[in-house]
Every structure is written in C-alpha cells, then in structure tokens.
Amino acid sequence: MMKIKLNNIGKRYHHDWIFRNINFEFLAGEPCVIIGPNGSGKSTFLQILSGLVIPNEGTVEYSNNNQIIPVEHIFRHFSIAAPYLDLIEDFTLAEIIDFHFKFKKHLEGVNDTLLLEIIDLKKSKNKHLKYYSSGMKQRVKLALAILSDTPILLLDEPTSNLDKKGIEWYQMLIEKYTASRLVIVCSNNQTQEYDFCTQKIDIGSYKV
Ligand code: ADP
Ligand code: MG
Questions:
Q1: Most CB within 10 Å of its CB: which of 26, 98, 151, 190?
Q2: Which residue's CA is the closest to the ligand 1 atom numbered 24?
C-alpha cells in the first residue's frame, strides 16, 4: 500500500513561513482534502508532496508496502492535474493523449479509444488545444491524470472551470477509478470537489 509520511514539514518564502510543523500520514484508500483560502499555501504543499518543491524544514517519506521510494523516483508514481501545469497547446487532443501515454501507462481496462469516449470530446479530437475552452482543457487534464496507472493522484482545484455536467463527470471518474489509490485534493472550499474525501488538512491551522 502506498504511503506518504510527513515529518514536521515547513515552508517559507524569504522570511515568511507559509506553514510549519505539519505531521501527517497519507494512505491509499483514504482520500484527503487540503483546504484553505487563496494564498494559504495549498499548491505549495501539493508541490512539496510531488517532490517539485523542497521544504525548508522536515522530511517527506514515500513508501509502497513499506518499501522506501526515493524522492527522485517519485514522479513515476504520481499523476497530477493543476492550474499551473499547462497542456501543450499546439497539440491536438489525439496528439496530447499519444504524448502523455509515452510516459505513463493507461489504467487497466482503459485505452485511447475509451479515453476519448470518456473525455467526451471526440468531435474535437483533431482540434488544437489552444482552441479549447478552459472547461474543455480542464476535462482533458483531469482525464489524463485520473486514467493513468499511478498509485498517487494529486488534484489541485479540480473542478475549476467545469460546469455542472462537468462536475458530475469528475465525480463519476473519482468514484470509478480512484478507490484504491492515494488521492490528495486541494480545494478552496468547493465541497463538490472533495465530498469523497475521508481526511482533511486545514492549511490555515499551520500558520506561525
Ligand atoms: P494557494 O494554493 O493556497 O492559493 P499558494 O501555495 O499558491 O497558495 O501560495 C502560498 C503563498 O506562497 C502565497 O503568499 C504566494 O504568494 C507564496 N508563494 C508561492 N510560490 C512562491 C514563490 N515561488 N516565491 C515566493 N512566494 C511564493
Ligand atoms: Mg493554489
């Protein structure tokens, strides 16, 4: 089982501590929401979990069935959908799917045809992503992350730009494809994007 253990994590930019003294254990099958207002440090925290940002204090330990995973290998084990990670806009949908799955495996039972059906943008398959609406792009980001065969799934404000139908679609994907994985969601209090979470971290309570 996948586990991420935080020991006294703290992060500051210049002299300002964003958060400090976070101790927590994330486990597969126990989805967790990171909650807090704009600028409270949710995205910074998620980037620490993904190994993209280094904390100023404390350590992050990754393990699978008690087997330690070194931080420099952790990118193979997670997929992420976040506002600051942009799709390659000069690609068509078909091309971005092809490109993405050069690096990640499909979740079992999912192939490119099914993926296009799930994203429900088949008509736009040969359109460049720069001509997609922000909601269409968000669907693509979420589908690529959720339908990759990775034990860790990191979602930063996943329902941003989605309409009501899109939010229901996201909830269906979560229910169907993430039960056994380690899922972490950042949310600015949009309950529809983290209803399924059984754990919660209020990042605002780790201010100094
Ligand atoms: P949230 O995702 O909760 O909106 P962020 O993690 O994006 O919050 O930002 C938390 C704080 O850290 C903000 O005050 C932001 O300005 C600051 N911050 C984030 N990244 C940097 C950086 N690279 N350099 C300096 N300050 C940063
Ligand atoms: Mg953020």
A1: 26
A2: 13
Assess whether the C-beta atom of 150 lies below 6 angstroms from ligand 1.
no
**Any atom of ligand 1 within 6 Å of the Cβ of 42:** yes
Ordered mean pLDDT values, 10 residues apiece, the chain (208 residues)? 97 96 98 96 97 96 96 94 94 94 92 90 90 95 97 97 96 96 95 97 92
Please give the number of the atom of ligand 1 that sits closest to the Cα of 38. Answer: 4
For Cα atoms 155, 143, 31, give the angle at the middle one, nearest 5 degrees.
35
pLDDT for res 120: 85
CB 1 within 8 A of CB 67: no
Distance CA 183, CA 154 (A): 6
Ligand 1 atom nearest the C-alpha of 40 is: 3
Element (H, E) at 166: helix 164-177
pLDDT at residue 33, rounded to an integer:
98
Report the nearest atom of ligand 1 relative to the CA of 44.
6
